[in-house]
Structure formats: C-alpha cells, structure tokens
Amino acid sequence: MMKELLVIAISSALVSNVVLSQFLGICSFVGVSKKVETAAGMGGAVIFVITIASIVASLIYDFVLAPLGMDYLKTIVFILVIAALVQIVEMFLKKCMVSLYNALGVFLPLITTNCAVLGVAITNVQSGYGFVQSVVNGVGTAIGYTIAIVLLAGIREHMEGNDIPYNFQGSPIVLVTAGLMAIAFFGFSGLL
Amino acid sequence: MNKYIERIYNGIWKENPIFVQMLGLCPTLAVTTSAINGLGMGLSTTAVLVAANILIAALRKIIPDGVRLPAEIVVVASFVTIVDMLMEGFVPSLYSSLGLYIPLIVVNCIILGRAEAYAMKNGPILSAFDGIGMGLGFTIALVLIGSFREILGAGTIFGVTVTPASYQPISIFILAPGAFFVLAGLTALQNKLKAPSATNGSAKKKGKKSACSGDCLSCAGHVEESKEEK
User: Fold this and answer.
1) Does A73 touch chain B (CB under 8 A)?
2) Which of A107, A167, A183 is closest, CB to CB, to B192?
3) Of A27, A113, A146, A162, which cross-links A43 as Cys (Cβ 3.0–4.6 Å)?
4) CA-CA distances (angstroms) from residue A132 to A6, A75, A129, A136?
5) What is the predicted pLDDT for the residue at B165?
6) pTM higher than 0.90, yes or no?
7) Inter-chain Cβ pairs, chain A and chain B, closer than 8 A
8) Average pLDDT over every residue of B171-193
9) Spatial separation of the C-alpha atoms in residues B172 and A129, rounded to whole Å
10) Quick one: closest CA in A to B216, which residue?
11) Which of A22, A31, A167 sits opposite B220 (nearest CB)?
C-alpha cells in the first residue's frame, strides 16, 4: 500500500510532471514565473486548492456520482464544484486566516481557470483511484507544479540581465527554457 | 463583405485563436503530436464552440448578469460531455489518444472567451458563424503545428511517410520538449515578422477583461501589479 502510494506521488510530481509533460496550467506557468517569490506563492496556492479539490471531487464521485450511475455528469459537476470551492476557500481565508489570504489571495481567482485542477480530478476518476490514492495524486501533482514553476522563475531571474537575441525576447525564450526543463525532467523517467 | 463570411474570415485569419490571440495553449501543446490528433481536437472544439455559442446567444437575454459565468460554464460543460460521449462511441482510437484533453475542452479559454466576448452580445446565427470561424481557425492552426511536428519527429503526415528513407526522424519533436520548442520558434518568428500577436503585445485588445480574456502569456502582469498595490 505504502509502496503504491509512493509510486503515485513520484510519478505525478516528477515523472509525468503536470506542466512539463502533460501541459496543464501552461498559462500560469509562463505568466506568473517572473519572480521566484510570486512563483512560490502561486505554487502554494495551487497545492492548497488542488489538495482540497481532489478530496472534495473524490468524495463526490465515490458517494454521489458512482452510486447513482451518473458517471457521465463528472465534467459538469467537477468544474462547478471547483469554481465554487475556490470562491468558498477565498472567502474563508479572508475571514479566518488573514495572513494566509494575504500570501495566496491574489492567486486564488487565477486557479479556477487553471486546467490542472480539473485535470487532476478527471485523471483520478479515469485511473480508478480510491480516496487515498486520489489525494496523494493531487498533492503530488501540485508539488510537481510548484517545483516546475519555482525552477522556471529562478532561471528567468538569472536570465534578466542576459543579452537575448531580439526575436527571442519575451515569451519565446521562456518557452525554450521550459523545453529544456522538459528534457531534464525526462531523466526522472528512469526512477520508476 | 457579407457579415457572415466576415465572421469566418475573422476567426481563421484576422483573430486566429492560436496564431494571433495565443489562446488555449494547453491543448495546442499537448495534442499536436500528430496532424490527425490536431484535427480531431480542433474539430471537437469547433463542435463545442458552435453549439455553445448558439445556445448562449439564444439565452443571452434570459441569463441574469450575476450568474453569467456559471451559466456559461454549465452550457459549455454539457456540450463537452455530449462530444466526449459521441467520440467514445464512434471514434474510440482518437478518443483514447486525446484522452484527458477532451473533458478539458471545458476550461479552454477560447470557448469561454468567445461566449463572453461575442455570444453574449450577438444573435444566435451570427454567433454560430463566429463559432465556425474561430473553430476552423483553431483547427487549421492545430493541424499545421501537428503536421510540422509529425514530419520532423516521425517523418510522416497523417500517418503517411513523406520523407526519404535516409531521413532520421528527430523524435524529440513529438515528445513533450518538442512542443515547447515549436511554440518558441513560432512566437520568435512572429516577433521577427512583427506579426500581430498577443505575445508581442501588438494584437488588438478588445472587450472587457473577464475571467479569461486571452493573452495567457502576459496575463500575470495584472497579478503582480495588483499585489504591489496592496
């Protein structure tokens, strides 16, 4: 059991990294990675939301959709649940955990449109994961996202003073960097 | 020019969702490993886009402004579910190669973006043509990128070998890093040609800023600004 969970965690965080090999959440990956500090904030918010979302989505699937045979409604239900959840989490943090809200608050609305959250919920169902496996997969995926975005932000900070050819300034050089990171992450496929 | 034809021209050329607006990058990168995958993804997105545009345009006076986004999401998600089930039934091989990315059409910025920017303001027929134009623009772009990657990475196009036997395929182009390199090359080319594109800030910004108004690559600018204000 423990070994299986470890395999799920490593494979979702490193081997099939959510951004670099599955291309989910590219928008925020490229957009919010100008500074390490903001990238870490975004990563924290994504870990937070994906963990809660995979818990809630897994519970809803196991106890509502699957017993009632309404499997086909999962896309609609998950997207609404995630959108509502992000709103609730934002309101809850604002009232009860002000310091966490100040750290993560601005990123929360961005996450609703982050396809990684819905992607994790659907992957969990498609792979037939139970509750514990779903949560582990969710946390692993979110950690993988955070690793990738913080690394990219670190590289971009170093590139700032570099003399980049005019045509590659802006997004092209970021995409080249992401491509090189994806090659580096191929190395992890030997882990499993 | 006829206003219906104009909509299609607009979607395919003037405001092409991928080449000009840089919307929907996740599927663009993920499914363009071959031309046929790009075509399948493009056409299924087109189907959802047209159907959602028609229904949202028809309901635009009934939907209260306060629940605009949730209502649009429900409409889009319903059509995505229909497309998902149809594909599973009729084209199972394509369905399994696109996999996760079919349900993820729901969060494709192009669809919500068109619903917000166009279908909420125009009638069903014009919106349908807008959906067809945008969908075809998306499909053409995906097929072009897919063909490019397939020729370089596997030496084939639509599964037919086109390169001479002496050509050694550069298989990295059909793997994950290749997607980033192709898109990097494309955006660099747009910078060089000074082509209108969201990535170099020369595409026209239209409509209000909504949940996702496109321009993914620079959308973070707003986040950092609003953080500094606080």
Assistant:
1) yes
2) A167
3) A146
4) 12, 21, 8, 6
5) 85
6) no
7) 154
8) 89
9) 31
10) A27
11) A31
> Cβ separation of B185 and A172 shorter than 8 Å?
yes
Name chain A contacts of B189, Cβ cutoff 8 Å: 167
CA distance A24 to A1: 28
A133-166 in b/e burial notation, b at 16+ Cβ within 10 A? Answer: bbbbbbbbbbbbbbbbbbbbbebbeeeeeeeeee
pLDDT confidence bin for B228, thresholds 50/70/90: very low
CB contact under 8 A, A172 and B77: no
Among A28-37, A172-181, B171-180, the minimum mean pLDDT is found in A28-37
Q: Cβ contact (<8 Å) for A80 and B77? A: yes
| Residue A32, min C-alpha distance to chain B (Å) | 5
**Confidence bin at B203 (pLDDT 50/70/90):** low
Q: What ipTM goes with this model?
A: 0.87
Sign of CA dihedral A43, A47, A48, A49: positive
